[in-house]
Design a protein that fits this description.
- The structure is a homodimer.
- Helices cover about 20% and strands about 25% of the residues of chain A.
- By secondary structure, the first copy, chain A, is α+β, with helices and mostly antiparallel strands.
- Chain A folds into 2 domains: about 140 residues, PSTPO5379-like (3-Layer(aba) Sandwich); about 110 residues, 2-Layer Sandwich (PSTPO5379-like fold), CATH 3.30.2040.
- In chain A, the strands form 2 sheets. In chain A, strands 1, 2, 3, 4, 5, 10 and 11 form a 7-stranded antiparallel β-sheet that branches. Chain A has a 4-stranded antiparallel β-sheet with strand order 6-7-9-8.
- Chains A and B meet through helix 2 and strand 2 of A and helix 2 and strand 2 of B.
């Protein structure tokens, strides 16, 4: 097994052309979802995130046309330092590329949104089993019946992730994840999936079917895929996201992110 | 003494023409600072708040041209429901008005930012004395040596508020306020004012001189006046703020705000 690297070493590796998912690497450091929109839609998307902070916690947003990070890393290049990008026109995927140097322009604004890797690490560190990780599967995700608060063209249902947790540990899972407000925070729903309009837990809309053991309770968290869904619904003329599983690796330790705005 | 009213009753009272400071009324409910900018500067200001969440925690922002709140109150009118507005041109105060119905237009975007009233209530409820309230004074505020992270034309030093707290209660004050991340959160500095570049604690830049008792430690929090200062520094062609002390009263109980993004 390859020795793990620092977040900066990984970013430079991606910049030099390496393509690989970021799952399980740069342990301890927060990773982030990417969405890039044109200036015309940036204010509405910033407002969407402000109105829906649980699925869309903003770790950092760029100024118009500026591709360099300041908060999550010192001067990382948003155009090259992620190991894969998906390009969308009118909400439809049109290209999958290694970097976006050739298509970046002065009209673009990027957003990095917190993801669930951080709180999953905290769950495991606190003795809460995470079934999909134990079974080397993707987390099951569902389109819920919760309407996001709309902003301009951005609207749609909230996507939620589910982790099946032993009843005795649900309280612990809730308290632990509540500390990670920039990583989706506490659950938005605990228990009967019907309450979220989910008819069949075994058939998620994204990810793999769940592993549920006897005595487990389904616990649901807001999910960052919500941002991609509402961007897709909005049919933006042009937008860019990270390739699924190919995230931006920040220099921020998850534990520091737990302090959130403290 | 007048019986207290609900937040909505107070807002309707202001809408009908009443002018008065909001200090000490609608107890238990969060109040908010107002800043209104033109569309041209709204994205940069949203980004400024994202980069400086401790002085500038956004409770809600409007869509371009839409004067009605959705999160902090159901359909409050940002143009009339605050008991006093100050209007600025090129960063200079040019008018003080009761409402802004006649100057509102489709190019404006409003921001409501959390204020410190909420955490002061929590401090007192937790047995931490708040000296300026005990002495019926304004809180002392200072321009610190901390540079805010800039965004577009918005830049400047962070304004901090100071509360002198008995040494035995500083830890409690820290933990209690850390829960209120949308009300400036935990202190940004505890102890020697020199570290913030404050030469004379007895001469604040805003508010009244502090009351400090034997055994007290100066404890500093990020302050919402920062937003007004950077807006003034930016010399925006046009902007509007609340009249000092004349805040927006939200429908959100401070305790619920304590949950922040949970």
């Amino acid at each position: 097994m390859q020795k793990d690297r620092t977040p900066e070493e990984w970013r430079l590796d991606f910049r030099s052309g390496t393509v690989r998912p970021t799952t399980g690497i740069a342990g301890g450091y927060a990773q982030a979802n990417l969405l890039i929109v044109t200036r015309e839609y940036a204010l509405d998307f910033a407002s969407f995130c402000q109105r829906n902070p649980k699925p869309c916690p903003v770790l950092e947003m760029g100024s118009v046309g500026d591709p360099y990070t300041k908060l999550v890393a010192d001067c990382a290049d948003i155009r090259t330092d992620i190991p894969g990008y998906w390009v969308y026109c009118d909400g439809v995927l049109v290209d999958r590329v290694r970097d976006i140097e050739s298509i970046w322009n002065d009209d673009l604004v990027w957003f990095l949104l917190g993801c669930s890797f951080g709180f999953e690490e905290a769950l495991m560190a606190n003795g809460v089993p995470v079934r999909h990780i134990q079974n080397k599967l993707n987390c099951p995700m569902y389109i819920s019946n919760i309407d996001c608060l709309p902003s301009g063209p951005f609207c749609g249902k909230m996507v939620v992730s589910m982790r099946a947790i032993p009843g005795s540990l649900v309280a612990r899972a809730t308290v632990v994840t509540s500390r990670y407000s920039l990583s989706h925070g506490a659950p938005i729903w605990i228990g009967d999936p019907d309450g979220l309009g989910i008819e069949d837990l075994s058939s998620p809309d994204f990810g793999d079917a769940p592993v549920i053991e006897a005595g487990d309770v389904p616990v649901f968290w807001a999910c960052g895929v919500t941002a991609q869904q509402v961007a897709s619904n909005a049919k933006l003329p042009f937008s860019i996201g990270h390739a699924p599983g190919h995230m931006f690796i920040t220099d921020i330790p998850n534990e520091q992110l737990a302090l959130g705005r403290i």
